[in-house]
Amino acid sequence: MKTAQAARLIALSVGLVFAQGCKQSFLDKQPLGTITQGNLFNDPTNAVQAVNAIYDVASWDQGPKFGVGDYVGQTYEWMFGDIMSDDAEKGSTPSDFTPLIELKTWTMGPGNSPLGTLWVHSFTGVARANTVINNIDAGTIDATLKNRLKGEALFLRAYFYFNLVKSFGGVPLFDQAVLPTAAAAVTRASISETYAFIEKDLKAALALLPEKNAYASVDLGRATKGAANGYLARVIMYQLGTDNTNKHTWQEVYDLTSTIIASTQYSLLPNYAAIHQTQGENSSESVFEIQFATSNDTYGPIMTGTTNNVFQNNRVATKDASGKNIPGTGWGYGFNNPTQNLVSEFEANDPRLEATVYKNNDIVLGIPETIDLSQNDTGYLNRKVAILVPTANQAGPQNIRKMRYADILLMKAEAAAQLGKSSEAVVLVNQVRARARTSTRPPGATTVGTSDNYAPTNAPANTLPDISAGLSGQALLTAIWHERRVELAEESLRFWDLVRTGRYFGTLSADVAGRARLHSITTNVVNPIPLLPIELNDAQTWHLPQNPGF
Fold first, then answer.
1. CA-CA distance, 342 to 377, in Å (whole number)?
2. Calpha distance 148→549 (Å, rounded)
3. Closest Cα partner for 210 from 226, 221, 198?
4. Residues 82, 494 contacting (CB under 8 angstroms)
5. Ordered DSSP codes for 134-181
6. What distance in Å separates the CA atoms of residue 189 and residue 309, rounded to the nearest whole number?
7. Cα–Cα–Cα angle for 495, 496, 500, nearest 5°?
8. What CA–CA distances, in Å, run from 238 to 166, 167, 197, 262, 526?
């Protein structure tokens, strides 16, 4: 959908949003222009733009955004999924972006800016989705297009609510626009009610969405049946380890992932090192990814690119022999540094390690990188977001992978292990390991000035042997969790995996674990659920009960 970026921005002018999660001054504003909700869905171009506007919110990583109050902040999934886990430290200089230190150490409050941005942006996405869901049926556009667009809106509403419930627990559930006068009547749903709402949306989306191969090349990245099934499996898997009031089973995860695999719409990309490169975008491995295009603007409130790369790439410019900065280096802020703990998790000669991290003096896309430990916490940076950027601090074009086929295989493996299908689980894990074995080195890792060559690893023949066919029980689960960690490293899943498997507190120091427990739900749950504080303004405006300890 990279060619649809301009349409996304145009769509913002049609007055779609009653932003439930924003300041009341914004809620009071009337839609501008001649396009209204009453006629928006009588024109196919406008209808597509309305849905594009929902995708647009999913791509927001900076604030404020397009009239969303006066809120300023950044939010990226790695701030929670990586930094709040044992996979990454904050990075950058010690004093830069202290709200991330608060997240890492569980000293945050309801004014924490990444949390506020996550809350505001998510409810903005919900509002835009509601505009489509509640008005498109009355439109006169073609029925096939109407169904598909409604399915996309339902999927995206579920996507936003899943991000909310994982982080904050039960939240207000909106399926209609909410005006400021109704703020006093807003209530907070339970965790199980929120998940039931998400599941209902995903199941409704499944009935309306096409398979991946039904989309033309200009529509790559839109929601599909595979994406809806994948997120439904993820939603259920997370409940199985946290709040399973809805009484789900591992058989459901097994069946959902089996459906995706049987669809033949997806396969592992042959070379692991290419997944996060341009050639890996919207590939056979992609189940869902957020689309971006090159931006000519430095990052700001309107852009088609992402600053995800800017925030994670090297803060220090590499100098040539004459002492001059080498172009293309030092254009990042150096956050989200992979830990030695993560690096040590990789087995000897695992090609995925070099494709995941780089260290001082490594060559990255043909450029030698210098890592200054005064501006880095661990000596490592995330290679998966390293891209060539011609000017500093430019919003980049690299898509963000949200769900990959490897994750589907490993979810099914975990479900199979939990169901006593050990031999099947072993086969699934070994599929993922077999692909890793044959990976090359990352592009541009061998020769200065050459950015796109994929050199062989020259690893020993016994690199990454299959896991034993006889594994079962806890030993098999441990092997699957290991595989998830190294295969999906720095892809913002580690924190959530630790929480749902009951291992999170054991990865923390005693004082941080103590604070995290103070902010956790510990009764009537499978494993304790640490929750983040609800955004201050809406907690007060909507009179929402705050999460434990805040």
1. 14
2. 43
3. 226
4. yes
5. HHGGGS-S-HHHHHHHHHHHHHHHHHHHHHHHHHHSS----SS---GG
6. 35
7. 120
8. 9, 12, 15, 23, 10
Of 542, 545, 540, 530, the C-alpha closest to 108 is 530
DSSP code of 74? B
- Where does 98-142 have alpha helices with state H? 98-105, 113-135
Half-sphere exposure for 266 (CA within 13 Å, toward CB): 28
What is d(CA 41, CA 513) in angstroms, rounded to the nearest whole number? 51
User: Strands (DSSP E) along 349-435, which ranges?
Assistant: 357-359, 363-364, 367-368, 380-382, 400-404
The angle formed by the CA atoms of residues 57, 62 and 66, to the nearest 5 degrees, is: 55
Whole-model pTM over 0.70: yes
Q: Where are the alpha helices (DSSP H) in 245-327?
A: 250-262, 308-312
The 3-state DSSP class for residue 270 equals coil
Structure tokens at 493: 């899943």
Residue whose tokens read 């869901």: 133
Provide DSSP, 430-493. Answer: HHHHHHHHT--PPTTSSSTT--S--------TTSSPPPPTT--HHHHHHHHHHHHHHHSTTSS-
Q: Residues 391-445: pLDDT tens digits?
A: 555 677 889 999 999 999 999 999 999 999 999 999 999 999 999 999 999 999 9
Q: Hey, what domains does the chain have and what are their CATH numbers? A: 7-276+530-541 (1.25.40.390)
Q: Which two tokens stand for residue 330?
A: 């030092």
Q: 160-197, pLDDT tens digit by residue?
A: 999 999 999 999 999 998 877 777 789 999 999 999 99
Burial class (CB in 10 A: 0-12, 13-18, 19+), 216: exposed
CB atoms within 10 A of CB 345: 16
